[in-house]
Specification:
Strand order of the largest sheet: 1-2-6-5
Mean pLDDT: 90
Number of domains: 2
Shape: globular
Radius of gyration: 18 Å
Distance between the termini: 27 Å
Number of strands: 12
CATH topology of the largest domain: Ribosomal Protein L22, Chain A
Oligomer: single chain
Number of helices: 6
CATH class of the largest domain: Alpha Beta
Length: about 240
């Protein structure tokens, strides 16, 4: 049986991987059953939670979402961030507030000096945290499940990448996809930068055909999950597989 949350570190970055069905059993027992991916949004109240989890502002934001899947993913991502902060500080989860900044990216309240990033895939949410808000951080995750590789290559990979990765396996393709998405989160540009303009070729990250300086890329495979992190390069310059 998967654990509700797994805490670990990689290259100085803290991670919390949340298994969403287990989280729902532990935090919202009886409130959200199976099939959360396809149901309309709910109006949650504090007394539905097994323990205080969300601040008043966070609960208001959660209740403004129209799909239960989005609500559950929002809750899981924030729970993961709070677990990371609780490793360092003796605080109740509802005292650790995560909001969306001007770019729409999740950010901790000013009292907490961490750069954070959140990603979701399948039944999992993953949060990453790095001390120092100014450092910047981007993480993206994909569960290893069948996808239409030719369609994904066409939609999100440059012509050079399509040639380089013709015949590549699913793990390789998803790894490169997560690297692209992680850089977008690091840059906090969202869809303003087309993913085809971000390339991973010969273990080098490019944007608009120019090598991206000042960042470090790490990719990991844990069980059935691939995730990649883009962070400042002050740890090392070597990419980790």
């Amino acid at each position: 049986m998967p654990r509700m949350a797994l805490l670990f570190r990689e290259q100085g970055i803290r991670f919390c991987l949340v298994h969403i069905p287990e989280m729902l059993k532990g935090l919202l027992a009886g409130s959200v059953g199976p099939g959360y991916q396809t149901r309309p949004g709910c109006q949650f109240s504090p007394d539905q939670f097994a323990r205080p989890v969300l601040s008043r502002a966070e609960l208001t934001g959660l209740n403004q979402l129209f799909a239960l899947k989005k609500q559950v993913e929002r809750l899981a991502g924030r729970w993961a961030v709070k677990r990371l902060v609780m490793q360092e500080k003796d605080l109740s989860p509802d005292a650790i507030e995560v909001h969306n900044d001007a770019s729409g990216a999740p950010a901790l309240a000013p009292a907490f000096d961490y750069a954070i990033s959140i990603t979701h895939s399948g039944d999992y949410a993953l949060a990453a945290a790095l001390p120092g808000k100014a450092n910047g951080l981007g993480v993206d995750m994909e569960v290893l499940s069948p996808v239409d590789i030719p369609a994904l290559l066409h939609a999100g990979f440059s012509q050079k990448e399509q040639t380089a990765y013709a015949g590549a396996d699913l793990e390789t393709i998803l790894k490169i996809w997560t690297i692209k998405e992680a850089l977008l989160k690091y840059r906090q540009t969202g869809l303003k930068t087309p993913v085809k303009k971000i390339e991973w070729l010969d273990e080098t990250l490019y944007e608009n055909h120019i090598p991206v300086d000042g960042v470090r890329v790490n990719s990991y495979h844990r069980d059935n999950i691939i995730f990649s992190v883009v962070s400042p390069d002050f740890f090392s310059t070597k990419s980790s597989e």
